[in-house]
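Researcher: Please predict.
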Amino acid sequence: MSRILLLADVHANLVALEAVLFAAGPIGGIWVMGDTVGYGPDPSDVLALLRERRAVMVAGNHDLAVATGEGLDLFNPVAAAAARLHRSWLSAEERDLLASLPLTRSGDTDAPLAGLPFSLCHGSLRDPIWEYVFNSVQADATLRLATTKHCCNGHTHVPVIYREGEHAARTAPALDVPISLTGRCLVNPGSAGQPRDGDPRAAYALLDTVGMTVTFRRADYAVATAQRRIRDRGLPPFLADRLALGY
């Protein structure tokens, strides 16, 4: 099947992930651009569901922090507290899985991408773990490093598409409208588990690998349920509060 579900920054929000999987409908695969864990209430269940669905995943900064403690000193106190709790909740096998995730994947060399013209990373290809791509200059830098025509990333929690060489101001992509992947493109589906663009709905995108289009979408989910789960598990209350605001 040609429809690939693009996800990023699920952040252990099982309620949001389940809503996205339902809303997306039939798909032929799932690509996850990092930060599967961190912040949210259900890291183990999110990992299990994505493994069950044979998702293709790359590492994000929260994934490595939870797996090995790497980068915890760079986190703010709220993020660090959540990462430490996740680290204590996950089994050694689950932590090893996170630690083993590649920093990047490429359709040129990586069998799970089946030769498709896409590279995957969390931040950027210059710095797969930490760089936030917030403008077209940064996007161009990543595309110049890509061995494939296109690239998908996450990390910013904001859905966007950049075309190489087009230095227009960043605008939110229209929802539910297929966008042609002309030229070389960097696609960020936004955050499924903790959006930061003012829209609290779970963000995702659907890639059509035959028509070479991407469609940005949002899924309503039971935010109050996710908030209750965060509070019940003893995570910092701020992480629950922000879900309702989309920031």
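Model: The mean pLDDT is 96.
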